[in-house]
Amino acid sequence: MNDLSVITAEFGDLSGWIKRPDFWLDKPDVGLPFLKSLKTAHVHGIGTSAGGREIVAVEMGEKEPMETTTDNLCSALASVQAPPDPTAVFPPSFYGKTRRTRPVLAIQGGIHGGELTGTVAMLNLCKIVEEGADLRGKPWPRLQELARGVRLAMIPWLNPDGVDRWPFRDTSGIPSELTSRCQMGVSKDGTKYKYPGVKDFFPIPPEKTAFMGCYFNDAGVNLQYDWTSLDRQPETRAWMRYYLDERPDGVLIWHCNAGSMMGPPEPYLPEGFQHEFSRLAGAVQARLWREGHRVGRMSWAGLVGMGRPFLNQMSAVYHVSGAMPIMAELPCGAAEWPFTAEEMLDIGLLTIEETLAFAHQDGLRPYEYWGKVKKQMAAAKEARA
Fold this sequence. Notes:
- The chain is an alpha/beta fold and 385 residues long.
- It has helices at 5-11, 28-37, 73-77, 92-95, 117-131, 141-148, 160-165, 176-184, 234-246, 271-290, 313-321, 341-361, 370-384, and strands at residues 42-48, 54-60, 104-108, 151-155, 185-187, 209-212, 250-257, 324-331.
- The protein has a single domain, classed as 3-Layer(aba) Sandwich (Aminopeptidase), CATH 3.40.630.
- It is 37% helix and 12% strand.
- The strands form two sheets. It has a six-stranded mixed sheet, sandwiched between helices.
- Strand 1 (42-48) and strand 2 form a beta hairpin.
């Protein structure tokens, strides 16, 4: 299942992509020691993968208590029979009877083992929160201020099995066919799985696989679609428990392709959430353009008729935890649409900065403006004094 020789037999020497810049903390072997060195972060395990690897969470910022009476959003939404109100989608029994004083943003990386640009940005964010500069020494004063004003709940490697199997570090300039082969895998009979047809196989049978694609955990499961399975994988149960406990306002979910960034909103969300995501996506894309970065076209996989609508992890995030799912396809740097490691990190950090700015001003809950909410909370506090 981990026979890399089937890859080298086709593509030859892979050593050109096993080096990484010092700031490129992509995998647990270099990322975990850094995380454990942080002074203000709480690093702990939230579960174990199918292959027995720890799933780690990193938290920065105070966790505020929530007074709730149910852990089931769907039940809470069904608890009131009244004239339809499309804005009444935040039942206090699930979201809490009082508002938290700061936004909560969860960030997730590595659901597919070879898509790690977002994880690198996430770990550099931790450095910025503590010291004001990323691991290159580049200052990010606005990002530090915004990040210190929220609670961050981060999962750097949701699929540590696939991450461990990923043979590369910095993928700047790597042939896309090579990354695709390592992501999708090769069976023992020589079949080369390809995207998106590989999704016809769920799970990929480990006993029939020469090299298990890094998309999948050690059980051969693509965690992107596992939440609708009868017997869910331990990674899926871990994120569901974690996000339900945190109940963040939004979950920024990293994927990687040529850099199409934020595509169309998930179809199985309340309309307000779809509209709010589209507004945020526009803000992020405009910021990247202003900073001189290339932004890819919308992914064809997200277009109507290309298998949509369907349910995936982004949809599940809302239905499980009540959060707005924010999916961003960062660039991987492949040769056909190349980016340097420096450019990819900047794009990731700018995406986080713009998402946090949106969370502070507009808020990640549709129909409200967080800036206005904070003023109302301050006025109420002053009136009680």
